[in-house]
Specification:
The complex is a heterodimer of chains A (114) and B (117). By secondary structure, chain A is an all-beta fold. Chain A has no helices and 11 strands. Chain B has 117 residues and is mainly beta. The chains are: A mainly beta (114), B mainly beta (117). The A-B interface holds A 4, 6, 31, 35, 40-43, 45, 48, 50, 56, 88, 90, 92, 94, 96, 100-108, 110 and B 9, 32, 34, 36, 41-46, 49, 51, 90, 94, 98-100, 102-105, 107-110.
Chain lengths: 114, 117
């Protein structure tokens, strides 16, 4: 099956810890995205990557970091600098180019700060 | 700046009745519009998109959406609601922006659809 996988499904973090959320896709998509979802606020873009070894900050990048060493993988690290990390995190991917492409989403990771 | 608004936090409809979930948008150029659905504790699933052409766009699971340029709206519709349609629905608009022609997508805050048996 083609698609996007995220792990873990649930993650608990203690104050001051860094944690890394995994995102893998086998859709051969160049572009990948990380969103944060909070109740009543829709989806907010954290980081995006259009191609391997390149990524850009989204609207709420502070306290987060990413890497894009492989086309298939786009891990997100939530650092201790992120003051309110409890949220549902969604990874997505899409084709790039001049056509208008929809995004494909993973099942999400729910992060809770203890 | 682009934006999208979903004026209703929740829509209730009886099973078998037609449903409408509203969305209005604001962009500087031509809008590219999307609808996604999210079931509890899951990722978003793509339903349909409008790029150009016919104002009535047909999508997955019997859903359709009507693009209205004069009213800047893109309402999601279904002729007969099912209980299994109960979910969170997101409208999104795409704009060109950012380095390298990144396709920034702005999502609405979501509308919870409750279909009552």
């Amino acid at each position: 099956d083609g698609g996007i996988t995220q792990s873990p499904k649930y993650l608990f973090r203690k104050e001051g810890q860094n944690v890394t959320l995994s995102c893998e896709q086998n859709l051969n998509h160049d572009a990948m995205y990380w969103y944060r979802q909070d109740p009543g606020q829709g989806l907010r873009l954290i980081y995006y990557s259009q191609i391997v070894n390149d990524f850009q900050k989204g609207d709420i990048a502070e306290g987060y970091s990413v890497s894009r060493e492989k086309k298939e993988s786009f891990p997100l690290t939530v650092t201790s600098a992120q003051k309110n990390p409890t949220a549902f995190y969604l990874c997505a991917s899409s084709q790039t180019g001049t056509s208008v492409h929809e995004q494909f989403f993973g099942p999400g990771t729910r992060l809770t700060v203890l | 700046a682009q934006s999208v608004a979903q004026p209703e936090d929740q829509v209730n409809v009886a099973e078998g009745n037609p449903l409408t979930v509203k969305c209005t948008y604001s962009v500087s150029g031509n809008p590219y519009l999307f609808w996604y659905v999210q079931y509890p504790n899951r990722g978003l699933q793509f339903l349909l998109k409008y790029i150009t052409g016919d104002n009535l766009v047909k999508g997955s699971y019997g859903f359709e959406a009507e693009f209205n340029k004069s009213q800047t709206s893109f309402h999601l519709k279904k002729p007969s609601a099912l209980v299994s349609d109960s979910a969170l629905y997101f409208c999104a608009v795409r704009d060109w922006g950012g380095p390298g022609g990144y396709q920034k997508v702005t999502f609405g805050t979501g509308t919870k659809l409750q279909v009552i048996p």
